User: Fold Pyruvate dehydrogenase E1 component subunit alpha from Cladophialophora immunda.
Amino acid sequence: MLSRACLRGFGLQSLPKRQAYQLARRTVTTDAASSHAEKDDVPEEDDKPFPVKLSDESFETYNLDPPPYTMETTKKELKQMYYDMVAIRRMEMAADRLYKEKKIRGFCHLSTGQEAVAVGIEHAITRNDAVITAYRCHGFALMRGGTVKSIIGELLGRREGIAYGKGGSMHMFAPNFYGGNGIVGAQVPVGAGIAFAHQYTGSKTATVTLYGDGASNQGQVFEAFNMAKLWNLPVLFGCENNKYGMGTSAARSSALTEYYKRGQYIPGLKINAMDVLAVKAAVQYGKEYTASDKGPLVFEYVTYRYGGHSMSDPGTTYRTREEIQRMRSTNDPIAGLKQKILDWGVCTEDELKQIDKKAREDVDGEVAEAEKMPPPDPTEKILFEDIYVRGSEPAYIRGRTPDETYYY
Ligand SMILES: Cc1ncc(C[n+]2csc(CCOP(=O)(O)OP(=O)(O)O)c2C)c(N)n1
Ligand SMILES: [Mg+2]
Assistant:
């Protein structure tokens, strides 16, 4: 959306309108503090709505009208969003430490830097909407109602973990959260299937189906797009473009890096996903779109991962330390929201420090509890439990060798 004033700012007001728009068209910003509110509009009350204006550079559209650039929020919501992002980051930091202490083993992918995606989405949907994602899933599990204790417990392989300690980092589930999926792209058709179920039952709910820039080139992604458009399914496909798939940059893996256009016949929206408010506005808009039976959308959440692909990747061989440092120091989603909260007088610096402290203490307390949970007994019963839904087990199941057959 470019206003006349904006065109003047670019010195393009004398050009024919269409040409001027094309020249002035900039890419979506990743400035996390790009939205604006008038201090005078911010009310005393914690739960009274006030308007926020999103930056002109929050979105780019493909065959779609952009979401409204003005949205409403409350002081309460902004503080909650801040708490949520700090809690996710603190939890990921705990996972990082426990991994380095060799208490967490196997695969472990952290989402530090990408917190605004999980938080912005959750603030736009209800618990009846569904979310499905890939293996970088700890933050989503927390937002969907998992506890820090159950998530860290899962990473530690404890029975009280969110998947009874058998899923680990990549396989976490919660009500209306369908994982945590380790096979790149596999969750995309499953997401379309969940949306089909929603359509079939007439629930008017949406399914947020996330995948990475690396996954975006998979054939099954396009098969899912086709079915979703053909049947007008209420699904919000969303490419979390964190610029890399393992050690390969988006530009080296994708012939077209404008992931929001990859649905071809499905309208798309590119979003500044370092700004949690832009994410919320986009998903709210997408949810209304699907609820009015207009079919699927393809979103691109522009974000950045600070750490390596997984705990075994230092993350600095295929990108420069300066690039990471620049994103951390100038585009951080938590620092961006913090700045807005202070600029708009939502609360004082002291109050914000209290929120920070509470989030850290809450997370640290639950992590300590998770560490105290006992590891499972090494019994066959526990090993073979939870392969089937409890109560639906067959008479027996074979192990690796005939003598390992387990009878339920
Ligand atoms: C079908 C399949 N192929 C390859 C892999 C190995 N692999 C794991 S993650 C990954 C990169 C995916 O990158 P992206 O989709 O951008 O997600 P991100 O890690 O950036 O969140 C690959 C190739 C896999 N798990 N599944
Ligand atoms: Mg990626």
Summary: Confidence is low (pLDDT under 50) at residues 1-15, 18-24. Residues 248 and 330 are 23 Å apart (CA to CA). The pocket of magnesium ion (ligand 2) is lined by residues 212-214, 242, 244-245 (CB under 6 Å). The longest helix spans residues 75-100.
